[in-house]
């Protein structure tokens, strides 16, 4: 793999995902991200926005005969030590909370844990500035 | 400045394809994935529009295969590494969310 890489050809990607874990576009985003790393490129940040926050939700239960996208994303982000950011505003309004937010708003359920971080939309802006390419996935 | 346009919605459900073709520049390319690959159903209106448009057309092979459709000779089927390369070859990627 390394032999085919030319100097300067490593691209920095920012990937934004707008769809829930059960949407086909969420799987496409994961396969694109895997292919980007396999091609020797860098992912500066994965940003999960709108319904995309459900991909970071640990309480999602996927039917046994379907792709478990939340689990696959978790493994992908952990194994490759990527920066997986979940939009905090989108997450709160969907009841997708980490321990800190669950305590802050006195809710009984926290469903976001490492490797995910809840943070603001500024993190997407920052990633776009840092990356060579922004690729968005969402919808169908 | 070139743009890779990515469509994933079925062309039979909305006007994204027509809107996309209207803004598509000479240097641009169009990638069909997901249900957007139904545009390659032979004989359908979107198929004929695309054939006549003469755009740089790419399609995600596995999504086409999942729908039992063939790649016409005026389109190119690619895998995910091809998708990554396309996104690099173009200056911007515009996903029609």
TrEMBL record, chain B:
GO biological process terms, semicolon-separated: tRNA wobble position uridine thiolation
Cellular component, GO annotation: sulfurtransferase complex
Any matching Pfam family: DsrH
Gene Ontology MF terms in the entry: transferase activity
UniProt-listed InterPro entries: DsrEFH-like, Sulphur_relay_TusB/DsrH
Domain of life: Bacteria
Keywords for this protein: Transferase
Entry-linked PANTHER family: PROTEIN TUSB
Name the UniProt record assigns to this protein: Sulfurtransferase complex subunit TusB
Species of the source: Pseudomonas thivervalensis
């Amino acid at each position: 793999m390394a032999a085919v890489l030319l100097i300067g050809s490593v691209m920095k990607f920012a990937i934004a995902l707008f769809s829930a874990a059960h949407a086909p576009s969420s799987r496409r985003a994961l396969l694109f991200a895997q292919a980007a790393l396999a091609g020797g490129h860098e992912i500066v940040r994965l940003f999960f926005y709108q319904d995309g926050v459900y991909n970071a939700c640990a309480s999602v239960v996927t039917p046994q005969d379907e792709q478990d996208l939340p689990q696959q994303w978790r493994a992908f982000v952990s194994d490759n030590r990527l920066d997986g950011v979940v939009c905090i505003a989108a997450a709160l309004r969907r009841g997708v909370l980490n321990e800190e937010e669950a305590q802050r708003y006195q809710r009984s359920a926290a469903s976001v844990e490492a490797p995910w971080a809840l943070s603001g939309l500024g993190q997407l802006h920052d990633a776009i500035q840092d990356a060579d390419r922004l690729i968005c996935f969402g919808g169908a | 400045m070139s743009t890779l346009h990515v469509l994933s919605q079925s062309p039979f459900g909305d006007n994204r394809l027509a809107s996309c073709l209207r803004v598509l520049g000479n240097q641009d390319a169009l990638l069909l994935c997901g249900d957007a690959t139904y545009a390659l159903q032979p004989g359908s209106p979107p198929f004929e529009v695309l054939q006549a448009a003469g755009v740089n057309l790419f399609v995600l092979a596995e999504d086409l295969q999942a729908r039992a459709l063939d790649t016409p000779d005026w389109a190119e089927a690619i895998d995910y590494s091809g998708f990554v390369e396309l996104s690099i070859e173009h200056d911007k990627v515009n996903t029609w969310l």
